[in-house]
Every structure is written in structure tokens, then in C-alpha cells.
Amino acid sequence: MRFPAWVRYLVIGALAIGAYFLLPTGGVQQGVLYLVIGAASVTAVVLGTRAHKPDRRTGWYLIAAGQAAFVLADLIWYAYAFLVEGGTPFPSFADILYLAGYPLTALGLLELMRFSRRISERDGVIDAGIIAAGVGLLAWQFLMAPVVTDSSQTVFARLVSVAYPVMDVLLLAVAARVAFAPGVRTPAYRIIMLALVGSLVADGAYSVVSLHGGYYDGHLLDAGWLLSYVLFGVAALHPAMRRLSEHAADDVPTLSRHRLALLTGALLLAPAVLTLRAAMGWEVDVAALAIGSSLLFLLVVMRMRGLVRRLESSARALRSRGEELQIANEVKDLFLTAVSHELRTPLSVVLGASSTLELDEGALSPEDRRDILDSLGRNARKLDALVSDLLDLDRLTRGLVKVDRRPLDLGALLREVLEESQAGRERTVNVETDGARVAADVSMIRRLVENLLANAVRHTAPGTPIWLRARSAGGGALIMVEDAGPGVPDAEKEKIFQAFQQGEGAPSHSPGVGVGLSLVARFAELHGGRAWVEDRRGGGASFRVFLPAGAPAEAPSMSGAST
User: Which of 509-512's residues contact partners 24+ apart within 8 Å by CB, and which partners?
Assistant: First the structure.
């Protein structure tokens, strides 16, 4: 069985670290092995990037450059230690390279994470700032302040000494930002975080030990840096490294218990520093504590402001959702009431007429029987139209309706619909056409005209004239159903084409269910057209539907004049 490259590299690296501590402390062999482990890390990062080809390769190459800077600094360190009498001077060019490795590594991490983990997300930036400020205050009090006040060193030496903990705080802030960013925690991500932990822990321990002159080549602290070298190489060789550069799901960041514990610990560092220095009898740097505490306070206020805004936004969303649910519930009640009314009336007529015919023993005249049968047919057709509208709306909502385009003579269709409709026998309906033709779904356009005609009859008084018109217009055709009734108020001209919505003037004797006009609009849209209503010149309403002649075309202006 052949193990993956990252597993083999991890095992070899672990064995090499173990061998490092078995070699003579401070010897040349130990120094050479240290350099080999570091150089192998740089090589592994470069080879892993070239092999896996992630989308954001720049980040990996920046990390490789940071590790290379550390390796070159190690090389200079050991060269001084083994080849120059008196050991490594301080500061030296090695320190410049060591300090350069931190920002390179930090930039690489930010480059890797900025697309996949929303690196600019505000809460994570503030939380990283809180941790950096807390640890920075601690580092100042115990690591930087003693160096700054040490007059035995040159100014440049003191600046270099202070720069090390500053860079550690910078890398810690970036690590915290990456840790707090939402996204999938891939194996490569976890390995990188372990590498950062190893490096930061070793740096912090080195700073404390070196203040008392307790560090030497081959010290146990070297394990942290060596482990960091190996783990960066393992992360780059792992196949999951490609996913670090991919766009992650838009996860909502949460204030987990671990995150809250880290933030609480960072906030408690200021009083802990004050208490510790007072207990040890050391002078308290009041100015540093005041600045650090003020910064932490401002960051916490900003964080609380973000939390309050999020809560307010959630509350508004809940209120809005509650209002929407209330409106939906009211619409449902109105719909059920309307449907029950629309079903009950024709159904009662059908039941009554059928009962009359069933109980008839020859007493009814032929004319009475004919009237009853006409009533049965008329109300059965009403029921059929209502059920068809509801079924069509359901099919449209679920995307089950397809347009079957065929050549269609709109004038002939208008006349057929009128002949089959009861409106033709109850109203004066005029049909006007200029021979307009389109490629359309015949059954849909038939239903569209039927619904517009039924709507005109429903919302106008008996005897009100109605016009059915079809004419060529703008690369297509225009269907118009007009009446001389009360018209449609401007505030309702868009609303009435929505499902289960009706105008203010819906007749109480037959209010409808608010489906017919919504189907008109949906059928028109399926053909690449649209439906709207205008005021008819001379009074009344002019319902219009534009249909492209074939492929969708631009509809004429809704503000065109009515005839």
C-alpha cells in the first residue's frame, strides 16, 4: 500500500525532529538537520502548490517565501555560530530575514483566505483586534518595555528586539482572523493552524527564556519551530489545500463558546497584568495600561454595536415575516371564502336543477326542462372554469406548463370564444380585428381571452357594452378586452394581476377568487409578452395583452392610447 505524499512527508518530518534531539546539543550535525528540515518545508510548499494547482497560488508562494526567509536566517545564524569566533552578533542580517518572514507568512494566509472565508467580515476583524490588543498589552509589559528601557543596548538593537514580539502579535492577529472566519474547516486549514500555534508558542517561550539568557542551540523550544516547518509542508501536500481557495458557503458567523472564552481571556489580560505586576512589586506602566484598556474598551463597544444591530435586524425581519404571515393568512381566508362562495352558488343551482329533473314525473313542460338544462350547463361550465383556473395556477407555480406554439388567427379565436360564452347572449359584445396572427399556444390564449371576457362581465353592470379587439402591433399582436364600466383605479392596476388579489370594486354577489387575471399575466409572460390595464378613452377599462409574433419581442408602451 502506497501512502499519500503528505503522509510520507509527515512521518519523515516527525522522525527527523526526533533525530534532531538525539544528536549532540549545539553540534554541527544538529544545525545541518535543522536547516534540512526547513529547506524541505519550502520545497514541499512549492511542489504541493505546483502539483495541486489551487486557484489562489499566490498565497502559497508567499508562505513559501516566508519559510524561505526563516531558513536563510537559520543558515546565517548557524554560519556565525560554527564559523565565526564569538558566535552570532545581535542584531545581524539574520534578524532582518527572521522579521521579514512574519509579514510574508501573514500576507500568504490572508491571500489564501480572503475569497473563501470573507476575510473582511467585520465581527471577525474586531475579535482578532481584541485578542491582538490583549496579548500586545501583555507583551509590552513583560517583553517590550524592559528592552525599551535597557540603555545598555543600542537604539537599533532595541528596535530589533521589540520588533520580534510585535511581529508575533501581528501573526497572532492574522491567525485569529483566519480562525474566526466562517467556512469549511478542511484538513489543510487545520494543519496550517497547528503550524501557526507551534511557531507562536515557540516564539513566546523564546522571548521569555532569552530575557534570562536561558536559550541555547538544541533547546527544547526548537521543537515548536521545527514542527511549524513540517506542518506547513504537510498542509501544502494535502489534496484539501485546493479547497482553501474555493468560495465557501455564506455561513453566518456565530459567537461559539470557544470564541467567547478566547475573547474573555484577552479582555482579562489587562487587569491580570496590573494585578501581577503589583503583586511582584514591579512598577506599573499606567500609560500603557490606560492605552491598552481604552483600545480594548473601544473594540468591545464596536463588537456590542454590531451584535445590537444584528439583533435589531433580526427583530425587524421577524416582524416583517410575521406581517407577511398575517397577510398570507388573511389572503388564505379571503381565498377560501371566495372559493366556497364561487363553488356553492353554481353547485347549489346544479343540485337544485338535477333534483328537480330527478323528481319530475311529467309535470314539467318542454320549455321548463330546457331552461333547467340550460341552467345546469351554464353553472357546470362555471364550475369547470373555476377548477381549471385553480389547476392551471398550481401547474404554473410548479413549472409544469410548456408553451406549444402554433399559427393562430386571433380574430377567429375571439369570435369562437364569444360564441361559446354566455356573455355573447347577455351583453352587447363587439369583435374588431385587422387579421392579426401570432405563433402561440392556442389553448392558453383561449383561456386568456375567456378570463378577460369573464372579468369584464363580472365587473360591469348588465347592458354595459364590451369590445373584443385584436390588431398587429410592434412585431406582434395586441389583444384588447374593453368595457364602458367604472374602470380600474390607478392604485390597483398592478395589484389585480397578482394571484388571489382583487380590486376594491369586486361585486359582492360574485366576488371571484382572484385567479383569472393572474393567469392572464402568467400566460402572457410564458409567450414573452405581458398584460396590463389602461383607462379606456371615453370611460371604462382597457385590458391589454401583447403577444410576440413568434420569438419574444418588445411590447408596446403601456401608456398608449385606447380606442
Answer: 510/341, 510/342, 510/345, 510/458, 511/338, 511/341, 511/342, 512/338, 512/342, 512/455, 512/458
| Per-residue pLDDT at 385 | 63
Contact in structure between 56 and 245 (CB atoms under 8 Å): yes
* Model confidence pLDDT, tens digit, residues 442-468: 888 888 898 899 888 888 888 889 999
Helix (H) or strand (E) holding 429: strand 429-433
Q: Kindly indicate the confidence band of residue 386, based on its pLDDT and cuts at 50, 70 and 90.
A: low
Q: What fold does the segment set 308-401 form as a domain?
A: Helix Hairpins (1.10.287)
Radius of gyration of the chain measured on its C-alpha atoms = 41
Label the pairing between strands 429-433 and 466-473.
Answer: parallel
Same fold, 308-401 and 406-548: no
Q: With bands split at pLDDT 50, 70 and 90, how would you rate the model's confidence at 27? A: confident
Residue 237's nearest CA partner among 2, 104, 19, 60 is: 60
Q: What is the mean pLDDT of residues 186-213?
A: 86
What long-range pairs does 74-78 form, CB within 8 A, spacing at least 24? Answer: 74/34, 74/35, 74/38, 75/35, 78/31, 78/32, 78/34, 78/35
Q: What's the pTM?
A: 0.57
Domain ranges of the chain: 1-117+183-247, 308-401, 406-548
pLDDT of residue 561 exceeding 60 = no
Buried b (16+ CB within 10 A) or exposed e, 381-401: ebbebbeebeebbeebeeeeb
d(CA 487, CA 500): 20
Q: Which of 155-164, 394-403, 432-441, 488-497 has the lowest mean pLDDT?
A: 394-403
Phi, psi of 483 (to 5 degrees): -145, 165
- Residues 249, 454: Cα–Cα separation, whole Å: 49
Cell numbers found for residue 555: 411590447
- Cβ atoms 519, 393 nearer than 8 A: yes
Q: What is the model's pLDDT at position 346?
A: 66
Q: How many alpha carbons lie under 13 Å from residue 175 in its C-beta half-sphere? A: 23
**Phi, psi dihedral angles at 163 (to 5 degrees):** -65, -30
pLDDT at 557: 46
Strand partners, 473: 476
DSSP 474: T
C-alpha dihedral sign at 248, 249, 251, 256 = negative
Q: Which CATH superfamily is domain 406-548 in?
A: Histidine kinase-like ATPase, C-terminal domain (3.30.565.10)
Cell representation of residue 468: 373584443
* Residues found in the chain: 563
Q: What is the pLDDT of residues 256-272, one digit of tens each?
A: 677 777 778 777 777 77
| pLDDT for the residue numbered 335 | 52
pLDDT tens per residue across span 461-477: 888 899 999 999 888 89
